[in-house]
Amino acid sequence: MTEQQWDSAGFETRAIHAGYEPDEMTGAVIPPIYATSTYKQNGVGGMRGGYEYSRSANPTRTALEGALAAVERGAHGFAFASGLAAEDTIIRALCRPGDHVVLPNDAYGGTYRLFDKVAKVWGLDHTPAVVADPEAVRAAIEPGRTKLVWVETPTNPLLNVADIEALAAVAHEGGALLVVDNTFASPYLQQPLTLGADIVVHSTTKYVGGHSDVVGGAVVVNDAEVAEKIGFHQNSMGAVPGPFDCFLTHRGLKTLAVRMERHCDNAEKIVEFLDGHPAVAEVIYPGLAAHPGHEVAKKQMKRFGGIISFRVAAGEQAALDVCAKAQVFTLGESLGGVESLIEHPGRMTHASVAGTELEVPADLVRLSVGIETVEDLIADLERALG
Ligand SMILES: *Cc1c(COP(=O)(O)O)cnc(C)c1O
């Protein structure tokens, strides 16, 4: 089938088939790992099959990039060596010294560091804004100077939800492009380009890869001119993934839909268990009617995801004890894999923002709910909270 024909197919079909046709020579159903840096050419200046050097393009990567574009409903997909490499490439491709960007006031720590410690030195200014509030974003935009409005939704670890459609309108009014980091929702639960966003960025390390065995990033866009700039910088900056990393990421993507359904099923049951547990002061999950972003999440997400945060009633030490006592939940950073993880954001993922406006409550615990037997996960939390 052609790319156009996949357009009308369902998400799962696109995730499994788009981007690759069985290999001409062997009929291989899965894209082979093309472990080659260079390609024999037909003659001087005469490329064969569109490949000349693997920084510029490699068939294993091409297959992944086609699939990434298809699942995000975009025209152009680009794979990178990490989520941050993808972000850096967006910055260099679309911003110049003297420009300005609006960032979430609770951005992923690595994203904030990239803007504040790397891009700022290079001359790119940023203003943090509460992206759950479109008016706050409007106020932060400097017309003429703001090139990007950068949004994560839901955010980490407080799971704030931003209205992508409303923010696209605000960004475009201000002459800026809307970038959505779709790592937490994954393309299965939310497709920002269909809601008006201009650029989707991913850490494919998380749900897309899904097995905690590979680091990667992705950018997906519709606009041909933006795509041309991203592609030029992808090749010029060279932060590309190798063929084995592309193979692993692509293999993960094929099962994203079934994994996300189970992540969400398990998360909903765990939320039910935690909500009302005497040792838990508050459960933070966009699927709860009391969550301030619930209505927006319902509008733009298929389900509410696999990340849950909760506050432990007895305070910081009790929260640390829960993390230490859990056994099925592995104590660790990152998220989105098949295995459940537990962490204390204040001391782990968000330790570097202590004392800033990004500081998170000390009694907060974050769960990345995996796809194990949910009764085992609940029994583990019961034990850890007891
Ligand atoms: C992990 C993460 C990133 C960074 O991606 P890497 O693959 O670790 O470079 C960016 N955004 C979000 C929301 C993340 O969770």
From TrEMBL:
<dbReference type="InterPro" id="IPR015424">
    <property type="entry name" value="PyrdxlP-dep_Trfase"/>
</dbReference>
<dbReference type="GO" id="GO:0005737">
    <property type="term" value="C:cytoplasm"/>
</dbReference>
<dbReference type="InterPro" id="IPR015421">
    <property type="entry name" value="PyrdxlP-dep_Trfase_major"/>
</dbReference>
<dbReference type="GO" id="GO:0030170">
    <property type="term" value="F:pyridoxal phosphate binding"/>
</dbReference>
<dbReference type="InterPro" id="IPR054542">
    <property type="entry name" value="Cys_met_metab_PP"/>
</dbReference>
<keyword id="KW-0808">Transferase</keyword>
<dbReference type="GO" id="GO:0004123">
    <property type="term" value="F:cystathionine gamma-lyase activity"/>
</dbReference>
<dbReference type="Pfam" id="PF01053">
    <property type="entry name" value="Cys_Met_Meta_PP"/>
</dbReference>
<feature type="modified residue" description="N6-(pyridoxal phosphate)lysine">
    <location>
        <position position="206"/>
    </location>
</feature>
<comment type="similarity">
    <text>Belongs to the trans-sulfuration enzymes family.</text>
</comment>
<dbReference type="GO" id="GO:0019343">
    <property type="term" value="P:cysteine biosynthetic process via cystathionine"/>
</dbReference>
<dbReference type="InterPro" id="IPR000277">
    <property type="entry name" value="Cys/Met-Metab_PyrdxlP-dep_enz"/>
</dbReference>
<keyword id="KW-0663">Pyridoxal phosphate</keyword>
<protein>
    <recommendedName>
        <fullName>Cystathionine gamma-synthase</fullName>
        <ecNumber>2.5.1.48</ecNumber>
    </recommendedName>
</protein>
<dbReference type="GO" id="GO:0019346">
    <property type="term" value="P:transsulfuration"/>
</dbReference>
<dbReference type="GO" id="GO:0003962">
    <property type="term" value="F:cystathionine gamma-synthase activity"/>
</dbReference>
<dbReference type="InterPro" id="IPR015422">
    <property type="entry name" value="PyrdxlP-dep_Trfase_small"/>
</dbReference>
